[in-house]
Amino acid sequence: MRRVLRQVFLVRHAMPAVDAQVPPDRWDLDPAGRAAARALALPPHAVLVSSTEPKARQTLEPAGPVRTDPRFVEVTRDEPFHGDYRARRRSYVDGDDHPGWEPRRLVAARFDAGVSFWLREAGARPLVIATHGMAMTVWLAAAVGLADPGGFWAGLRLPDLLEVDLAARTWRRA
């Protein structure tokens, strides 16, 4: 029987090349984002999994082959490109389900199903998942009980690397 770890490394993707003419789920990393991805100190011999979005996959590619899983994509939402998107997103992760946005309970459930699957697949190897800020925050709020989801989300970097201990229900910046 393989030993199943309860530790996950989460990576928020690096900086994408923002283009209003291209849907955000198709954005690639910009040059600074690619450099930052190369500089990430990921655990060796890890199973690398990302959302299906290019910016997430490209964040892990310098470390080796990356598998993709749609359960780690960003929150599905009807959101205008311009305006105060930060306030809308922060209120969402703080608990407001906006009309036209994927309900937080569904985000947490799909993300959790992906984490459970990939933990089994990884066995004794470290598991690294590249994902997106809101989806990561919603899942962590459910999985470890973030005290201030909005503050956590607002403090995420591009990229960011977090170590999550599911058994202890803790996280730390790695």
Q: SS-based structural class?
A: alpha/beta
Q: How would you spell out the order of helices and strands?
A: EHEHEHHEHHEE
Overall average pLDDT? 94
> Fraction of residues in helices?
25-40%
Q: Tell me the radius of gyration.
A: 15 Å
Report the sheet-strand fraction.
Answer: 15-25%
Give the number of domains: 1
* Contiguous helical run count: 6
Low-pLDDT regions: none
Shape: globular
Protein model, in words:
- The protein is α/β, with parallel strands linked by helices and 174 residues long.
- The protein has one domain (7-173): Phosphoglycerate mutase-like (Rossmann fold), CATH 3.40.50.1240.
- Helix content is 35%, strand content 16%.
- The protein has a six-stranded mixed β-sheet.
- Helix 2 (54-60) links the parallel strand 2 (47-50) and strand 3.
- The radius of gyration is 15 Å and the shape is globular.
- The protein starts with 6 loop residues before the first strand and ends with a strand.
Describe, in short, the structure shown.
With 174 residues, this protein is an alpha/beta fold. The protein has helices at 31-39, 54-60, 85-93, 104-122, 133-143, 149-154, and strands at 7-12, 47-50, 67-68, 127-131, 160-165, 170-173.
Please give the structural blueprint.
Blueprint lengths: L6 E6 L18 H9 L7 E4 L3 H7 L6 E2 L16 H9 L10 H19 L4 E5 L1 H11 L5 H6 L5 E6 L4 E4 L1
Parallel strand pairs: 1-4, 2-3, 2-4
Antiparallel strand pairs: 1-5, 5-6
Helix pairs in contact: 4-5
